[in-house]
Design a protein that fits this description.
The strands form two sheets. The chain has a five-stranded mixed β-sheet. The chain has a three-stranded antiparallel β-sheet with strand order 1-3-6, with no helix packed on it. The protein is built from 14 helices and eight strands. α3 crosses α4 and α6 packs across α8. With 444 residues, the protein is α+β, with helices and mostly antiparallel strands. The chain has four domains: 106 residues; 150 residues, no CATH class; 46 residues; 71 residues, no CATH class. It starts with a helix and ends with a helix.
Length: 444
């Protein structure tokens, strides 16, 4: 319903626009009267009571825009209200700088005017440092090496010359984004001519359809009529004028060698390598903790009553001669140890005086079987309720490591998880970095 109403409002003013373009007497006054209420509401919401002269300036600028762009047939209300809103942003901005605001259509205004001259190059240099390697290659080819658009196209492997100019616009818009963030904070619209409520500069494109075509101003193949419309648009659109100002300053700085295009490739690779190296160290440390520390469920002597200390129930032990351990029991004369296969005919028994026993060399345990261990103190009445019993399994090195990873210490598991996350993240970022050139290269 909202879109239908908006379209209806736009259509209702088309006859007035045509009459104004035809030079009919009074057409300008009638069109201004139709736009006065929405423009006044926009200015009043931004500036309060101090809005009459600003609203009049915005209406006059709207009619002047129609004079210069005889082919305009878009949403005249959006145009007028956006010009008014941008004018309000101008007033707020220049009041903060304690300078008189320039006229609505003033190509000399620049976002860089907010930065003292000594800091302008530093700000632009910082912005260039945030560009991708692909953007740096393109800007170096165009501004530093001075290649023609066709030569740049061939070097970058693009399909068309128009793709070169479009990508240039995308890259330099990122420079403007960084400059605006340095001045105002927040974020910029991601697309040319777009609108974002968090745009820190406060400016909005007055005609997004034209705003998205600014790159054509750099394309020699652009027709004269379209070029004239785009130049008129830039003269009246504060958002696009800021973009063009930053583009011009950046291009001039690169051509004169006042700005440098270093390479982010080495730095990016070093960061990714550091991330992978840190992840590898964390993985190694986590595995070491899980292999060296007792598995979860191990009972430390002194924590409670007599029990089997190792192997604990369900544990996987490597080798064929594990050492059996249990907590000591006061008053005993000896311990009777019995080790039997759960599903087999293996049986080993022994009598020992200490709370430990190792399987002898001549009775090795077969790998992969489950075993039950039982310890009987002598005298028997000193045995704890339920006796001393445990079940474990023998296995190869792989089964042992897998068990320790699953049942290892919490600290080891955390380190292992962080290490794996770092390695996977580094691999994903490296993959995205490598695919960026081909992704942008498809733009034409």
């Amino acid at each position: 319903m909202g879109d239908l109403l908006k379209e209806s409002n736009r259509e209702s003013l088309l006859p007035g626009i045509k009459a104004y373009h035809a030079g009919e007497p009074g057409a300008g006054d009638r069109l201004a009267d139709a736009l006065r209420d929405p423009v006044t509401r926009e200015v009043a919401s931004r500036l309060g009571d101090d809005h009459e002269s600003v609203a009049s300036d915005a209406l006059l600028a709207t009619l002047t825009y129609l004079d210069r762009d005889a082919g305009f047939a878009g949403d005249i209300r959006h145009l007028a209200v956006t010009i008014a809103g941008n004018r309000c942003s101008d007033l707020v901005r220049w009041r903060r700088l304690r300078r008189p605001p320039p006229p609505v259509a003033d190509p000399a205004r620049s976002i860089l005017d907010e930065i003292e001259p000594p800091q302008r190059l530093a700000t632009l240099q910082s912005a260039l440092g945030h560009l991708t390697a692909d953007c740096r290659r393109l800007l170096r080819a165009m501004y530093v090496d001075g290649l023609s658009s066709e030569a740049v196209r061939e070097r970058l492997g693009l399909a068309t010359v128009q793709g070169v100019h479009y990508r240039r616009s995308v890259c330099l818009r990122r420079v403007k984004t960084h400059v605006s963030q340095r001045l105002h904070g927040g974020s910029e619209p991601a697309e040319p001519g777009g609108r974002d409520a968090t745009d820190p500069s406060g400016y909005v494109c007055i005609d997004p359809r034209l705003g998205g075509e600014l790159w054509r101003l750099e394309d020699p193949a652009t027709e004269a009529g379209q070029r004239s419309r785009l130049e008129t648009h830039v003269a009246f659109c504060s958002s696009c004028r800021q973009q063009r100002d930053v583009e011009a300053a950046t291009g001039s700085g690169l051509r004169s060698n006042a700005l440098k295009l270093g390479s982010t490739a080495g730095r990016d690779v070093r960061r990714l390598r550091w991330l992978g190296g840190a992840g590898g160290i964390a993985i190694a440390a986590g595995l070491a903790l899980m292999l060296l520390l007792p598995p979860t469920g191990t009972v430390v002597p002194g924590d409670g009553g007599p029990t089997i200390v190792g192997p604990v129930a369900g544990e996987v032990v490597p080798g064929s001669r594990p050492t059996l351990q249990w907590t000591a029991i006061d008053g005993i004369s000896s311990y009777r140890v019995s080790l039997t296969a759960v599903a087999g005919d293996y049986v080993w028994q022994a009598s020992v005086s200490e709370p430990t026993a190792r399987v002898p060399e001549d009775r090795p345990l077969p790998s992969g079987d489950r075993f039950r261990v039982a310890v009987q103190p002598v005298p028997a009445h000193l045995a704890p309720p339920g006796g001393l019993r445990s079940t474990f399994r023998t296995g190869n090195a792989g089964a042992f490591v897998l068990y320790r990873v699953r049942q290892g210490s919490l600290a080891g598991q955390i380190l292992l998880g962080l290490g794996l996350s770092a390695v996977v993240t580094g691999a994903i970022l490296m993959g995205r970095r490598r695919s960026l050139a081909s992704a942008l290269g498809n733009v034409s």
